[in-house]
Write a structure and sequence with these properties.
Strand content: under 5%
Largest sheet: none
Shape: globular
Structural class: mainly alpha
Number of domains: 1
Number of strands: 0
Radius of gyration: 20 Å
Order of helices and strands: HHHHH
Number of helices: 5
Helix content: 55-70%
Length: 114
């Protein structure tokens, strides 16, 4: 019985290793792997308030529906972001640099854990 508990972590490690890609190059060779799911991967270092940042937040929270909805950066868009974040929404002035920083940090935490 004692050997069973010794081997269980090794078996789990072997299963996990079998499920992961064998090399980074193999994942990039498939066409779908080069394009992450919309909104599920945070851009590396976009400037807060940049078009890239707004697009990522918009996709992550599904603010616009195929281009229909408030324009990113407008008070209406900021309110929609605030509403989507619910109780976790930052308490800073909507649209301010501090608010954008809080939204960014919150979404990066959410993306990393999902």
């Amino acid at each position: 019985m004692r050997h069973l508990f010794t081997l269980a972590p090794l078996a789990l490690a072997a299963i996990l290793a079998a499920c992961s890609p064998s090399s980074p190059d193999s994942a990039s060779s498939s066409p779908s792997a080069s394009e992450p799911a919309p909104g599920k991967t945070a851009p590396a270092n976009p400037s807060l308030g940049s078009p890239e940042w707004y697009a990522w937040v918009d996709k992550t929270l599904a603010i616009s529906d195929d281009g229909h909805g408030p324009k990113a950066g407008t008070p209406e868009w900021d309110s929609a972001v605030q509403a989507k974040l619910g109780e976790e929404a930052p308490q800073q002035k909507l649209g301010s640099a501090e608010w954008q920083q809080s939204v960014d940090a919150l979404l990066r935490t959410r993306v990393a854990t999902h």
